[in-house]
Amino acid sequence: MENENDTRLTYFYFHPFSTIPEVRLLIFVFFLALFLLSLWVNSAVLLSVYNERSLHTPMYFFLSNLATLEMVYSFVLAPLTLANLISTKKPSITLAGCGTQMFFFILLGSSDCVLLSVMAYDRYVAICHPLRYSTIMSWKVCTALVAGTFTMCCLFGMQISILILRLPFCGNHEIDHFFCDFPAVLKLACGDIHAHETTFILICAVVLAIPFLLVTVSYVFIVMAILRISTNSGRQRAFSTCSSHLMVVIMQYSCGSLIYLQPGSSFSAEENQVVSIFYTFGTPVLNPLIYTMRNRELKEALTKILRKNLLCK
């Protein structure tokens, strides 16, 4: 019991981006700009969907949930990273704090991936079964899909956090990362980690490989249905409703696979950190921008809100 209490009081230290204050300040400004921009663009998407009645459809319901995930995701990682960049002390976190951050990171990141597969299914029903769309994608079904996604991913996050909290740590406590990522923390454990690695790989397969397979199958049927459309304008309209989602899917799953679906022996801290910076700070900004710029209805709703606010001022 005493050893367990000591483990709970373990402090981890994050590997600094740079030891040069001027460089750290530049990184801080860059990350802060991305963080604030992600909050702005995602809140703009939420306001547009909420205020425009024509957007009260399953597709935009899923999109608003995705925007909410991106905002909360940014709040989980960005503030601590920004605080560590301007801190004069060596940035640290307790094991309990590390486990908590890891829980929310896995919950939100995996929910993001699963929700994208749900959105692919929504597009499949809309294009391949348009006459039955309102029946298949009822509000009850949409709510159940979102609730099921969050519940399943919450269980995954709890499982990973519990595994980390039960590990013994000794010797080096410096995480070679800017947040408590599971592979980076696992490298510091001094016990047997084979079961932990296996569990993590299985969870990654469930939240990355299986949803990606479902997205791929959905788009095979979508492409086949689009090719059967006789008019060019009809095909272009159908493709335009899927192109933004497909771009976000490729970006999301490629980053996740590069980080988490590679063998442990090929784990590179430098490569992981570069991809993670893009994944944690870049995608929350790019995802809503992609959806907004390539979606006429959402762009018009956002323009209407901006004009209304400017006129009020």
Number of strands: 3
The gross shape turns out to be globular
Low-confidence stretches: 1-8
Tell me the strand percentage band: under 5%
Which strand order do you get reading across the main beta sheet? 2-1-3
Main beta sheet, described? 3 strands, mixed
Approximately how much helix is present in the residues? over 70%
Estimated radius of gyration: 21 Å
CA-CA gap between termini: 62 Å
List SSEs in N-to-C order: HEHHEHHHEHHHHH
Question: Can you describe what's shown?
Answer:
By secondary structure, the chain is an all-alpha fold. 77% of the residues lie in helices and 3% in strands. It has helices at residues 2-8, 21-51, 58-86, 95-128, 133-136, 139-165, 182-186, 194-227, 232-260, 269-293, 296-312; strands at 11-14, 92-94, 174-175. Strands 2-1-3 form a three-stranded mixed beta sheet. α4 (95-128) packs antiparallel against α6 (139-165), α6 (139-165) runs antiparallel to α8 (194-227) and α9 runs antiparallel to α10 (269-293). It is globular and about 65 Å long. The N and C termini lie far apart (62 Å). The model is unreliable at 1-8 (pLDDT under 50).
Give short descriptive properties of this protein.
disordered N terminus, 3 strands, 313 residues
